[in-house]
Amino acid sequence: MSSGLVFAAAGAVLFAMGLAGIVLIGHLLRRILAFNVMGSGAFLILVGLAQRAGGADPVPQAMVLTGIVVAVASTALALALARRLHRLTGRTTLSATDSDPE
Amino acid sequence: MTDPVAWLILLPLVWATGAFVLGPGRGARLAIGALLVQCALALQLAVEVLAYGGRTHPVGGWGAPLGIDLAADGLSAVMLLLAQALALPLAVYARAYFAENAPTVRYFWPLAGFLLAGINALFLAADLFNLYVTLELVGLAAVGLVAAGGTARQVAAALRYLFAALAGSLLYLLGVALIYGAYGTVSLETLAPLVDARAPAAVWIAGGLMLAGLMLKTAIFPFHYWLPPAHGGAPAPVSALLSALVVKASFYLILRLSLDVFAPLAAAAATVLGLLGAAAIVWGSWQALRTDHIKMLVAWSTVAQLGYLFLVFPLLAPDGLALQAGGMQAIAHGLAKAAMFAAAGVLMLATGRDTLVGLAGVAGRVPLTLFAFGLAGVTLMGLPPSGGFLAKWLLIEAALTHGQWGWVAVVIGGGLLAAAYVFRVLRQAFLLAPADSRFHPVPRSMEWTAFVLAAASVLLGLRGVELMALLARGAA
User: Fold this and answer.
1) Between B300 and which of A17, B4, B287, B449 could a Cys-Cys bridge form, CB atoms 3.0 to 4.6 Å apart?
2) Partner A contacted by B224 (CB < 8 A)
3) Are the C-beta atoms of residues B274 and B310 closer than 8 Å to each other?
């Protein structure tokens, strides 16, 4: 098993853990972290699978850099929204009732 | 220098930033002016594609793989035209709407600009990874717009939407990673001849992941749970933008990918997609029949109408009928749903209430708006000569050509259900107003923009030939 495949397998595990996290966890902060774990998994797979001929492939590395920027932006937005929800309602989870208009 | 392909992305970025600096008042004027130019650019691009066929544009003179290529063909030209044609009247509407509701206005114009830049870039992107980036740009701007009102309910809806959008785009990204691992490229053009029915298992998994992610973002049944609160709870111009345009972006992506790159994989999933579409039509319409809130009714109607877009997939064939039907349905629903949310915004402003019961008597107070709502309803029901009729007619024709009779029943049944929920609104509107009810005056420009959008969705059926010719240029 090459080092690239090890990275990719670790990435798959991280991705699955993250996915399980967002489905199972209600707490907003931990859910946002789960998204980051999931994203890191996808990045590892992207970089790991592309290492075929021994040397690193620069294109997926550039993609991962772009992906990290996107992940930072969405994490910041999610955190801002979660803080706002906490300040307005005192809750740190999404409840089933707030989908209905009052 | 004057290539419309680059300017369609650059211009919204410029006015979004300008609107952020200048503030809402002058920002709105800047946005409307720039949107006029964008409409002209989209029209120019459509005419060029119609005359010379599709083309690519290397950004800044740097072609792929070092730089980024943009590609325009018939399908993307049509979607670009739709995006600009929707954004301009909605901007005029939003300017009047936010003059009445000051607090949410501050971030509307910058976010709308970034949203439009993302959407235009998505329609022009030529590789899988750029599609991911533009998808995220659209998602983040849309979440910002949903939350811009700042109430607890809107923030909760925005968070729910953000989680759905993030999960969707991460699934898509994982698919991209697997594809790159298998083929060493993400360019749509290079990938198309490489992927065939004998592709390795990783590619099939990648296709499945990308499809699942995009379905989550398109809010097709059973992934629709986030859509009604997000679209129903936002301010009217935002709801109109989201329902008419943003969900179409990820649909466009599914359609584009299943037309060329994943054609062999899409064929395997086609029947499932069609069945989900049929389920969406029934479930969305049923919920629209049950809700008491006018905007939730329109939002559930979006869930139902998205179902028609997915009926296209089992019928995709080289004859292009289903592709034309899908394009037509995307345009007709876009115009009609923008009109319907705009009209719903006027009705809520006029009555000061958001329930169906509160609509009693609006027929005498804002007749133009009610007429617009009815016209948009005509398109959703699929009555001639509307664009919706044309789309559903093409769908039925495609179904009959391929001998798949079941879909015909779904299309016709869905039209009847749409009629039922549209008439729920109209019936209330013609009741006598209770003696103690008060009506607020509504700016004429809001009433007229809703009417223009609705009229466009109906008249589309009469002038559909050019658009069909453009769609026939297809995904070249």
Assistant:
1) B287
2) no
3) yes
How many domains does chain B fold into?
A: 1
Distance CA A42, CA A40 (A): 5
Q: Do A102 and B153 lie within an 8 Å CB cutoff?
A: yes
C-alpha count within 13 angstroms, C-beta hemisphere, residue B299 = 27
Per-residue model confidence as pLDDT tens digits over B34-62: 999 999 999 999 999 888 888 888 887 77
Residue ranges of alpha helices (H) inside A1-57 are 3-24, 28-50
C-alpha separations of B240 from A68, B231, B418 in Å: 31, 8, 18
Distances B210 to A38, B142, B439 between C-alpha atoms, Å:
15, 20, 49
The 3-state DSSP class for residue B131 equals helix
Judge whether B156 is closer than 8 Å to chain A, CB to CB: yes
Supply φ then ψ for residue B118, to 5 degrees. Answer: -65, -45
Residue-wise pLDDT tens digits, B148-180: 888 888 899 999 999 999 999 999 999 999 999
- C-alpha B136/C-alpha B25 separation (Å) is 28
Most B CBs within 10 Å: which of A32, A99, A102, as the mutation test of the B interface?
Answer: A99
Domain map (residue ranges) of chain A: 3-93
pLDDT at B238: 92
Decide if A38 and B158 are in contact by the 8 Å CB cutoff. no
CATH of A3-93, one of 1.10.1040.10, 3.30.2170.10, 3.30.70.380, 1.10.287.3510: 1.10.287.3510
Q: What residues make up the domain containing B186? A: 4-472
Distance between CA atoms of residues B243 and B233, nearest Å:
12
Q: Which residue has the higher pLDDT, A53 or B165?
A: B165
Whether residue A49 and residue B177 make contact (CB cut-off 8 A), yes or no, is: yes
DSSP assignment of B7-54: HHHHHHHHHHHHHHHH-HHHHHHHHHHHHHHHHHHHHHHHHHHHHH--
